[in-house]
Amino acid sequence: MKNNSFYASELMAVCISRQIVDGEIVAQGIATPLVAAGYLLAKLTHAPNLTFVSAIGQSICQDAAPIGLATIEMLWIKQGKMTIGFVEGAADFLPTFEPKEFFRPGQVDPFGNFNNIYIGGSYKYPRLRLPGSGGIPDVTAYGNNIYLYVPRHGRHTFVKSLDFRSGLGHDPGRKRGAGAHYLISDLGQFDFDEESGQMRIQSLHPGVSLDRLKVKTGFELLIPSKIPETDGPTNEELRLIREEIDPFEIRTLEMLGGVRRKQKLL
Amino acid sequence: MKNNSFYASELMAVCISRQIVDGEIVAQGIATPLVAAGYLLAKLTHAPNLTFVSAIGQSICQDAAPIGLATIEMLWIKQGKMTIGFVEGAADFLPTFEPKEFFRPGQVDPFGNFNNIYIGGSYKYPRLRLPGSGGIPDVTAYGNNIYLYVPRHGRHTFVKSLDFRSGLGHDPGRKRGAGAHYLISDLGQFDFDEESGQMRIQSLHPGVSLDRLKVKTGFELLIPSKIPETDGPTNEELRLIREEIDPFEIRTLEMLGGVRRKQKLL
Amino acid sequence: MIDKTGTLFDAAHLVKDDDVIGLGGLTIYRRPVGLVKALIQQEEPPQNLTLLAFTAGIGADMLVGAGLVNKVRTCYFGLEIFGLAPNFTAAANKGKLDIIEESEASLACGIRAQLAGVGFIPSLAWQGTDMFSVRPDVKLIEDPYSGEQLTAFPAISCDVAVIHVLKADRSGNCVLGGNPTIDLELAIIATTVIITAEEVVDKIEGKIDIIGDNIDIIIRLPGGAHPTSCYPLYPIDGQEILRYITYCKRGQLNEYLEGLSLTPVSLSNSLG
Amino acid sequence: MIDKTGTLFDAAHLVKDDDVIGLGGLTIYRRPVGLVKALIQQEEPPQNLTLLAFTAGIGADMLVGAGLVNKVRTCYFGLEIFGLAPNFTAAANKGKLDIIEESEASLACGIRAQLAGVGFIPSLAWQGTDMFSVRPDVKLIEDPYSGEQLTAFPAISCDVAVIHVLKADRSGNCVLGGNPTIDLELAIIATTVIITAEEVVDKIEGKIDIIGDNIDIIIRLPGGAHPTSCYPLYPIDGQEILRYITYCKRGQLNEYLEGLSLTPVSLSNSLG
Question: Mean pLDDT of all residues in chain A?
């Protein structure tokens, strides 16, 4: 996975960071350390006025702290400036603040619709039941700040047709909000064509060929005439990630399958 | 106003206190020091496990403190165990906890319907616009713990027909909850007939004649065959009210008209 | 940190003709009286305001008395134990105010509907009362599950909110110091939010009650709630409230405000 | 003060067949794992429970694995970065669980509807998604003001709530210590509320997170959230969660639970 002198997880965190605008509010789900690394990198570089809303602790934070696994609550509870319970948060504040949030789809289709309910088989007898949709069917139905990330780009995730649509993408029937603006994977960056709503290559990560991307993607991507290479991390960005934000490399857990993740956790 | 060796305000506070059951939750509106005196008396006597919900401070309190005017927030903010904003309180908690609450009607009719919107004239051109209905049209529509108090019993308050019904009483059209259980005035105690829903004399305060009550009431009251006299306060109840609960006699402000109230406040 | 501090003068200019103006605090507790005075004492104060408050007290009464308000949206307008709000009562008795009759539940549900982005929130409140006769705009709805008739309280919007706080930082994070009322929700639903603060600090250590993101301007205004209280700094000034009532009953609100203009905070200094 | 303290044994008996059981906390934070184990290890554990949780984690997974649960109502069932919840995933893949698919908004609105005493709360959520196909009971409603089609999330009830807290007094007032989740609301909507607490005190000085009035029984159970965290007392025990997953994948949940029964808290003592 090593490209030049950085890992895909590091490049992904850097790309996530670059999507953050100073002064905005970002939301952090559960089990998303890669996204946390990206947000914290933004906070420490170009977005010092970033505000975090966290599912863990149900708190609003304005200060950064290193990512810890067992001690994740330190970040979100101890430094929380304000606590908002889930009921109030889901019903009142998500629709109003519309924080920017990165979601990780179990499946994603060419229009940025996505699925976190089940894969394969039927709903009643799935091949694999997924944990569930969290707030995805909510914010994707009305929100304007939906972003996606896929740590392991593959045909099982990038599918022509979803088994279930729990996250609404670029759909002509949409009444409010907007489909995902952006998707980052370990192979490249993507956006969505304004007219058709179709997923389009924005850049390929260093060392990734278009052919490899095509093989790993279960549908036709829109391909621009010229495909740029994703800008790699700066030395300072890498230093911040490695030394200050995530010294225990917790972000990399999101890149691994079950067995390797367990090895890492042990 | 002095009866035997206590004031009407003291007897009213004592009667309010006697309506309180240990372990329950009572709500306290704004500008109701007489009710506060009654609740605190209950807390200090037979209802040590009383919980207070207060509009001022939007807090839940479990400890008693003396009534102060300028320092009323001390009681409700400083001692508050928990704060619940008005939105949450009105929408979520009042319907669930249904705290016992004493309301002061601008007008009350024979069925315990009441009015805090305007008196005389029309809604657009009232003879007297009242401050408004607070949470009265809410809790009287669904609640089961409505109690009333009238510090100055008179025909302007006890009317045959309301100018406006902002508080729902004993009405055959009622779908939820129940009309007021009880009314205390400076002349007597009243309840409502279970069949007809009509206001009924429960007792007359010491020194108050039935004739005087009738003259002061703008409609026919149900009169039981035998009318008991209201039990006066005990020496200990009077001591608690005068020395511990309300040494500045703030409760008496509710008994006075505008001019005399102002004299007292200055 | 983005510095949003400004002057009373700047803040007062943010309130425009025909705005819905929401006042923070509760009747005679932590009301933005200083900002209200600044609004009134401008050369051309805004006109035809709609006043929105969970409960309206002395600051609201000043706005009504000075003729800035033609519509009132609240569930209580008075001065608690100090009696009726003189200007509101006089104007209402003369039929000069358009009153949007509210209750605690209608305000709570209306604010929640606005937050959730929906047109209404259903409630058991008001059923069987006369409230619908003066609020023909409030519709009934059938519960699709039980068939029960419910009250569909409509969403409530707010153009500009004015909130007095104990402490603020320069980005607009606020500490209220008690009596949260509806101030957090008001700050979120309002298009423009004006904060007056007893104290403005660089950074608030510890918890906040309102997040700065929605705040537009912060003015340092010690004593800015007087004669209402600002717990725990100062209590209600009952004598001053009674003096206000006396002036207003004589029709001398202007004289009252002029006599005050240098206390408790120097407006001219703040305007500078 | 009314003393509501009792034993794990008493508490476990409050959960009856067919109950909706609500679990406090969040996935792997402050979950009532100790009480869950006590429930499972009774001679005749309750059957056909409906599990209600904002997010379901390891305690919920034990209940599913032990066969106490046939219906699940949550918006997330997993072990966060530790992976899928093994028993839930296996049971769901086999079609053995009746899943009432929820989202954050449907749970939030359903709880609020229950609190307000109405049948539903309207929301913008779910519009355009496939959620309705697996929740045919969720109805659509027309906004009577705008005509917009909204989702009418139905009220959610709960028979018995189980919440682990940092500190409780004998009357049931509780301090959560962070991650309030939906615990306050759960304690209010539930008919019966069981509290396990790291510490039981005579009186809590300072603020509380849950008021005691609705609480039925309080059990002192230090370590009662392990291997989930109880901030700030102890963090997530990741190694133990991995050990749990390993046992469960081998179909050895019983062996896992038996091996645990004296740790982290002596069940036999608590049962006495």
Answer: 92
Whether C203 contacts chain A with CB within 8 A? no
Which of D243, D108, C83, C196 minimizes the C-alpha distance to B129? C83
- A95: which chain C residues are within 8 Å (Cβ-Cβ)? 115-117
What are the DSSP calls for C200-216, one per residue?
Answer: EES---S--SB-GGG--
Q: Which of D114, D21, D129, D29 is nearest to D72 (CA)?
A: D21
Q: Which residues of C touch A91 (CB under 8 A)?
A: 112, 115-116
Helices and strands (H and E) in chain B: how many: 9, 15
CB contact under 8 A, D211 and B51: yes
Q: Is B20 helix (H, G, I), strand (E, B) or coil?
A: coil
Distance from CA of A117 to the nearest CA of C (A): 25
Has residue D265 got a pLDDT over 50? no
Tell me: cis bond preceding A228? Omega within 30 of 0 counts. Answer: no
Using CA atoms, how far apart are residues D263 and D29, in angstroms rounded to an integer?
A: 18
Q: ipTM value of the model?
A: 0.95
Please list the pLDDT of chain B residue by residue as tens digits (266 residues). 344 689 999 999 999 999 999 999 999 887 788 999 999 999 999 999 999 998 888 888 888 777 776 566 777 777 789 999 999 999 999 999 999 999 999 999 999 999 999 999 999 999 999 999 999 999 999 999 999 999 999 999 999 999 999 999 999 999 999 999 999 999 999 999 999 999 999 999 999 999 999 999 999 999 999 999 999 999 999 999 999 998 888 888 888 877 777 777 77
Is the sign of the CA dihedral C71, B95, C84, B170 positive or negative? positive
A260 at the D interface (CB within 8 A)?
A: no
Omega of the bond leading into D46 within 30 degrees of 0 (cis): no
Helix (H) or strand (E) holding A147: strand A146-150
Q: Which string of b and e fits C30-69 if b means at least 16 CB within 10 Å?
A: bbbbbbbbbbbbeeebbeebbbbbbbbbbbbbbbbbbbbb
A120 touches chain D (CB under 8 A): no
With beta carbons under 8 A apart, name residues in chain B contacting C104. 86, 89-90, 94, 134-135, 138
Nearest CA in chain C to D151: C118
Q: How far apart are CA C88 and CA C67, in angstroms?
A: 10
Backbone angles phi, psi at C216, to 5 degrees: -100, -35
**CA pair distance A131, D89, nearest whole angstrom:** 8
For chain D, how far is it from start to end, CA to CA, in angstroms?
24
Rounded CA-CA distance C17/C189 in Å is 19
Residue A3 C-beta-side C-alpha neighbours within 13 Å: 19
The pTM of the full predicted model, rounded to 2 decimals, is 0.95
Rounded Cα–Cα distance for residues C237 and C239 (Å): 6
Q: Is residue C149 classed exposed, middle or buried when 0-12, 13-18 and 19+ CB atoms within 10 A define those classes?
A: middle
Say yes or no for a CB contact (<8 Å) between A81 and C211: yes
- C115 contacts A91? CB cut-off 8 A: yes
C-alpha span between B43 and B62 (Å, rounded) = 9
Across the interface, which of C118, C124, C150 has its CB nearest the CB of D150? C118
Instruction: Kindly list the residues from chain D whose CB atom is less than 8 angstroms away from the CB atom of residue A88.
Output: 108
CA angle B244, B247, B252 (to 5 degrees): 120
Are the C-beta atoms of residues B98 and B138 closer than 8 Å to each other? no
Nearest to C208 among A49, A82, A142 (CB): A82
Residue D71: pLDDT over 90: yes
Q: Which two tokens stand for residue C179?
A: 């009596």
CA count, 13 A, side-chain hemisphere, C191: 11
| Angstroms from C117 CA to nearest CA on chain A | 7
Spell out the alpha helix ranges (H) of chain D: 8-12, 33-40, 58-65, 86-93, 104-116, 131-134, 183-189, 238-249, 253-260, 267-271
Please, what is the end-to-end C-alpha distance for chain A in angstroms? 21
